[in-house]
Amino acid sequence: MDFSYCLTKDIQLPVSVRIATLEGKHRLKSTERQVDKTRVSTYTLNSPLPDVYVTVQLYGDNKPLTVPVKTSYKAFKNHWSWNEWLTLPIRYCDLPASAQLAITVWDAIGPRKTKPIGGTTFQLFGKQCTLRKGKHKLHLWPDCEADGSRDTTTPSKIKQDQDSDMNKLEKLVKRYDCGDIRPEEWLDVMAFRQIESIHKTLSAASTALALYIDLPKFDFPVVYGEMEYDLPGPFSSTGQTVGETAMKAAMNQQIYAMDQRDTMPQRTATQYVLVLDTDLQRDNPVEAKHRRLVRSHRN
Asked: 10 Å Cβ neighbour count for 212?
């Protein structure tokens, strides 16, 4: 058995996600939709589906890490399908362990007017701090934007969906795509045909919205690895490294405190603490500029 894996700190590629399809039924009130006939083409007006686009933003530790990235314009006829890769302005090595995607589906209800159809929040790392990959089905919470906080109100998975038969079949298909299930050509054709038939039947009867996305697949499992930085060692005023004996002597020095009611000093457990100044080795920009000005004046 192969136990090879890769750490995120070694991956210098940008984070990307593929927006595949949106399934479900969403009804808009006629009073909410205001179409400007002078700006919208006849092809779009005759389309049975509204103009919809998706925005993706990365959050971590309750803070946005990137700006929102959205899909390009596309006119839809029968179903919502983008099949578009979105690249976020951040690399895998810079991701925190709490990184999650806040995905919101928007509808253009008028000129420069949009309304959220639904939102969902998807965590990039699993329970074992392993980067997720492959296809995923995300539950959309209707009529709200995605919540990117740690305790999100728009999780991508709910217990009701996880217990359904279709969700179990989708997990098996995902394992098949990742190579965890051995392919059998004569059996796969009939199995996928039956799965597709079940999927169409359940999708037509369901009123919930679901967004399908794809994540990149790597040759090895990717585990979260925090970037390590080498801090400079303690330096003395002369620029030479302080010896270990001097450091121990300074840290072991005791402080004596005088009690107001007693003239005898009392020994306390307080010790000196060495504070490391990381900027001590760096050049002072003010002094560097002063030296350049002095040299130019001399010349």
From this structure: 17
Q: Quick one: how far is CA 239 from the chain centroid? A: 43
- Domains of the chain, by residue range, sit at 6-29+47-160+206-223
What's domain 6-29+47-160+206-223's superfamily in CATH?
C2 domain (2.60.40.150)
- State how far the Cα of 193 lies from the Cα of 184, in Å rounded to an integer: 14
Report CA-CA distances (Å) from 239 to 208, 230, 243, 245: 67, 18, 12, 17
Ranges under pLDDT 70 in the chain: 1-2, 26-48, 159-166, 178, 199, 202-207, 229-273, 276, 278, 297-299
Say which amino acid occupies 218.
F
pLDDT at position 63: 92
With 0.85 as the threshold, say if the pTM is over it. Answer: no
Question: Is 129 in a helix, a strand, or coil?
Answer: coil
